[in-house]
Amino acid sequence: MNKHKSFWYYLRRGVYLSVLAVLVLQTWALYQVWHYAQPQTLQQADAAVVLGAAAWGKNPSPVFKERINYGLKLYRDGMVDKLIFTGGTPVEGYPTEAAVAARYAGKQGIKQADMILESQSRDTYENLYNTRELLVGSEMKRLIVISDPHHLARAHFIADDLGMDVQTAPTPTSRYNDSAQSKQLRLWLEESFLLVLYQAGRLFPQARDHIRT
């Protein structure tokens, strides 16, 4: 009888501790998403990495355009010497996100020689992983990663895992900032959940590809 009670006691205790651990991790993730969404004081870097987003044909979506525009500002302000545009295409035959960004930047007067394209990635992890591989052997080490405010916590931890020297730069203008508070809250919760999943993927590497997709 005592053994039976002891089993259920330890089972309940294990469940309570598991729930508490999940709540603590989720709270940590919520804070991280908020923290990296705040404007940062940037130091001069070698290049700005513009994380890919949806492209509408040959034109960047409004979200993507704001990321590109911020990259152009950092370039013109002398904060970076190069712009790295990332992103493949989900549909064969359409321009890659990187190519769309380069086309847009070219129309704004950016020299082709100052743009680097990473055109194979499908998600944030590949944006950064492929960028790291492109820069192997180059002198470009210090990077500024640009994305929407709520997206940068996950990007930071991915870059850190990849051993990249990055600063994060949330776009000062964003549909995230202009959207209703309910949508901002939803994006905040979604990104914190994705960050938790990413951290779980570090514990179970064999499941990481499934989690990422």
Provide keyphrases for this structure.
Rossmann fold, YdcF family protein, 213 residues, 8 helices, Rossmann-like_a/b/a_fold, 7 strands, 5-stranded parallel beta sheet, two-stranded antiparallel ribbon, 54% helix, DUF218, Cell_Envelope_Assoc, alpha/beta, elongated
Task: Give an overview in words.
InterPro entries: Cell_Envelope_Assoc (IPR051599), DUF218 (IPR003848), Rossmann-like_a/b/a_fold (IPR014729). Pfam families: DUF218 (PF02698). There is one protein chain. Helix 1 packs across helix 7 and helix 4 crosses helix 5. The N and C termini lie far apart (48 Å). The strands form 2 sheets. The chain has a 5-stranded parallel sheet, with helices on both faces. It has a two-stranded antiparallel sheet with strand order 2-3. It has 213 residues and is of the alpha/beta class. A hairpin with a 2-residue loop joins strand 2 and strand 3. The radius of gyration is 20 Å and the shape is elongated. The mean pLDDT is 88. The protein has 8 helices and 7 strands; from the N terminus they run αβββαβαβαβαβααα. It has a single domain, classed as Rossmann fold, CATH 3.40.50.620. The chain is 54% helix and 14% strand.
